[in-house]
Amino acid sequence: MPAQRDQVARYARFVVRRAGWVVLAWLAVTAVMNVAVPQLEEIAGRDSSPMVPKDAPSMRAVELMNEEFSSGDSESFIVVAMERTSGLTRADRGYAELLVTELAKDSEDVAFVQDVRDPALRKALTSEDRQARYLLVGITGATGAPSSLRQVAAVREIASEYAPAGLTVEVTGPTATVVDLATETEHSVLRITIVTIGLIALILFLIYRSLAIPALILTVVGLGLGLGRAVVAWCGLQDLFAVSTFSGSFLTAIVLGAGTDYAVFLVARYHEQRRLGIEPTRAAAVAATRVGSVIAGSAVTVVLATLAMALADLGFFNTTGPAVAVSIAVNLLVSLTLTPALLALAGRRGWAEPRDSRAAGVWQRVADLVAEHPVRMLTASLVPLALLAALFPLADLSYDVRDPLPDGAESNRGYALLARHFPVNEVLPDYVLVRADHDLRTSKDLAVLERAAAAAAQHDGVELVRGVTRPLGVPIAEASVAHQAGLVGDELGRAQGEVAEGASGAERLADGAGQLDAGAGELADGAGRAVEGADRIASSTGRLTKGMTTLLDGAGAAITGSGDLRAGASGLADGLEAAAGQVQLAVDGLALVHDALATKSLTCGLDPACRQARTGLKMIWEAERDQLLPGLQQAAAGARALADGTGDLQTGLQQLRAGLAKARHGSRQVADGQREFADRLGDLSAGAEELAEGVGRLRGGTQEVAASLPALEDGLEAAARHLRETRSAADDPISGGFYLPPTALQDEDFAAAMRLYLSPDGRTARFAVLGATDAFGPEASERVEEIRTIVETSFNGTRLDDAEIVTTGMASTNADLRRYSVSDLEVIAGFALVAVFLVLLLLLRSLVAAFALMATVVLSYGAAIGLSVLVWQYGLGIQLDWTVAAVAFVVLVAVGADYNLLLTKRMHEEAPDGSASGIARATAVTGGVITSAGVIFAVSMMALLAGRVTTIGQVGFTIAVGLLLDTFVVRSLLVPALATVLGRRLWWPQRPAEHAARDGAGSSA
Q1: For residue 940, what pLDDT band results from cuts at 50, 70 and 90?
Q2: What is the mean pLDDT of residues 306-329?
Q3: Burial tier of 206 (Cβ tally within 10 Å: 0-12, 13-18, 19+)
Q4: Can you tell me the distance from the alpha carbon of 104 to that of 422, in angstroms, rounded to the nearest whole number?
Q5: Residue 928 contacts by C-beta under 8 Å, 6 or more apart in sequence?
Q6: What pLDDT, on a 0 to 100 scale, did the predictor assign at position 386?
Q7: Which three-class secondary structure state does DSSP give residue 582?
Q8: What is the per-residue pLDDT for 461?
Q9: What single-letter DSSP state applies at residue 128?
């Protein structure tokens, strides 16, 4: 140790003796580096580190989905949303189609654009109210990668350039949100830097009450920050590690705080030496020698703790930690050389002289109080810290990247636009990808996919599931076995009923055909006999007509040569009366036959021959009734009058002659009708024979149909029963109830669904699961893993049992983010604790002291998180961001250990035996400087609240309150009280003699 101190002393003396050259050297190096190396923001913009590792499950799923469903070059996706509240116009449609063309031209930034020129796809991307539409754009930069800033900006520029007047266009999506967050952070850096420097300058002026010291310290800090940023940019340029936009914001705040602390430590020890009368150059050298090891130890703890972040998987940590570590290391060199050199230069001119401090008496009284009541002070400091730390487990961390952004950010405006017109999470679905070893475009595999989709849709919190079997969120109706079986079963059931009714009708038809057959036979026989009778009637009527002519001739002769004709007239009267009676019988019979054919025979009206025969029969009947019968009756009456002598012969003969003439006319009409009747009866007879033969065949065929109908009825009933049973079985959730015939695979509507949810080779399927809760919330992250398990379980025992199942989307990314953030915090915390403990052990060479200091800084960290939970979560109703815990741990543990290390090292000097008085002196001497350093660092972190990003503000607030607790409670009360209670045991396993020896060596230095 003495040898090392001698080396440090010689180095310090060299620096102060060559102070001018040292200052010029640092100015030159800083200028050259900032000119030769691009600015940090430019280097950060070239990085492509994603927010979560590329081997994360969600990122591998994105890669798989990109390869199977797009060009294969997309690393992330953004959404171009458009709205016109009065309804989208033809120009708006043309604009969306134009975007596809224009965005595709930017191949450097854009890898994929949904083609809204496809009518089916355009319909799916348009809201039901026809007021909004969106399209998905794939870009080559991963979510969270700085390169995505340029790409999102390029898409936004193209989208706004071609937008029609009155159409609201917003570019949104998780990647756009992270870009907005990075942009807001970058814009906040300048504001944060100005506020930080202003506050530091104000505090320094209040502490030192002069302009020279604040100017000196700010010069050191400014050069350290400028050089640190340049060195970090150079490292990023050489690919030594990745840097991001977040690297610059946190680097600025931490470097300003830590650099100021290191300068304040040196100035404080310089002033102490000046008060002892040491000349300025030597005072600067002594200050560098005495405090150099403490500053080096402090810087090393910060470097190691932040370097631990390089072991993290998340890009936020592994791009921020190394950058901060390098910049702190640079500032350590600047502080240990430039600060003593400037102090020497300023001291020679009397610009850095100390002023009386009124706070010295305050810290002496605090130190004395602790020395007098160590247990009471220990309890008084432990209780509030423990109570605040008890709130730590209640922290509800947020993984919602939208929360840190103001509502006016474009991505948040886009989310609001989509929420007004589309279902919840329309552009933030959870994707479940199924990768099989065979083509899934078969009925069986599609049925299994539908079963998985149906099972996922039943999960609580799932709004709907879209897939190849349900492109609109509900199963394809035509593909439902229940639907198909029900339709066929119902139709067959109705057919069965109708056939059953037709069977009895067919039997009646067969019976009627049999009766018709018999009747037709009888009609044929009767018609034959009627022909024969008609022939006889016609012959008799001919003879009657001939007789009528003879009688008429005889009557004429009688009139001419009349004599006593009484006897002849009587016989003639008898004959005429008999003829009239026979004719009367014929008239009555013909009337009955005509009536039967006209009113009681249905078939005669349909048969032309029968109708004509019936007409001829009517002529005979009417002629006999109206002509022949009245003539005979008149002639008979005249003859009877002659026979009886009751009348004049001449008159009687004339009456006889007139009646006979009338009878002859009637007999001629009867003869004509009889001939017509006979002819038609002949036709009727031939037609009746044909009818009888046809009806016979009809009867036979009908009998065969009637005989086969019962068997057909039984078959239809069996088919209907089978299909109804199939419908009942298909409705069972286990079977899935889905069947798509192979022919349906060629349907155009189904082909559109396949393009969206089946890869071109048919081996990869995807489901889009729309959750009912916020896609960024913890419920969604938990749900997506449960959905994956549900899909996996639904494949058990099927052809997809061995299929690979992965999930992606915002919920999956957040689930990975949560998992990685927890594991990263464990790694960072473990490494940081070990590193800080080893540094403390190396510098203090005491296990007890190292453990005690580590315990106090961990308690201080827990209390800081608890206070942030109280203020943000319960006070303001805002969840703490997931980055707060890890970043605050690294800074608070490292910086807190710095302050405690400075105090404990002074205790080494003042109380080598663990005496209470020595501990009190160390507390009083370091009280002012540690408090000043703590307040300055806290203010520099609190300045992060000046930015517009809530995340950075929460990190700054948590670190600031942690530093203030560490400064005013842990360093001022807890550590001195604990050291007083432990006494000489604080330095175990060292012995007091060793302390005394080192103390003497230190005094001589």
Answers
A1: confident
A2: 90
A3: exposed
A4: 26
A5: 268, 357, 359, 360, 363
A6: 95
A7: helix
A8: 87
A9: T
Instruction: Find residue 466's DSSP bridge partners.
Output: 768
Calculate the CA 486 to chain-centre distance.
32
Q: Which residues make beta-bridge pairs with 434?
A: 765, 805
Q: Contact 960/849 with Cβ under 8 angstroms?
A: no
Q: Tell me the two tokens of residue 136.
A: 């998905």
CA distance 120 to 897: 64
Encoded amino acid at 427, one letter: V
Give the single-character DSSP code of 586: H
pLDDT at 390 over 70: yes
pTM of the model: 0.70
Q: Which of 563, 577, 579 is nearest to 638 (CA)?
A: 577
- Token pair of 575, please? 């004959």
pLDDT digits (tens, 9 = 90+) for 455-485: 999 998 898 899 988 887 877 765 555 555 5
AA letter at 924 = A
Quote the CA–CA distance of 473 and 175 in Å, as a whole number.
26
Length of the chain in terms of residues written: 1005
Cα distance between residue 912 and residue 928, in whole Å = 22
Residue 612 CB neighbours (<10 A): 17
Q: DSSP assignment of 174-193, as one string?
A: HHHHHHHHHHHHHHHHHHHH
CB 555, CB 569: distance < 8 Å:
no
Contact residues for 696 (Cβ-Cβ < 8 A; gap 6+): 517
Cα distance between residue 683 and residue 679, in whole Å:
7
Over residues 71-127, the pLDDT tens digits come to: 556 778 899 999 999 999 999 999 999 999 999 888 888 888 888 888 877 888 899
pLDDT 10s digits, 163-201: 999 999 999 998 899 888 878 877 887 888 889 899 999
Distance CA 613, CA 768 (A): 84
Share of the chain above pLDDT 90, in %: 34
Tokens of 875: 């006070």
3-state SS, 929-981, equals: HHHHHHHHHHHHHHHHHHCCCHHHHHHHHHHHHHHHHHHHHHHHHHHHHHHHH
Largest CA distance in the chain: 206
Separation CA 919–CA 904 (nearest Å): 9
Tell whether the model's pLDDT for residue 594 goes beyond 90. Answer: no
Tokens of 800: 């997809």
621/623 Cα distance (integer angstroms): 6
Instruction: Output the CA–CA distances (angstroms, integers) from residue 899 to 88, 89, 542, in the order listed.
Output: 64, 67, 157
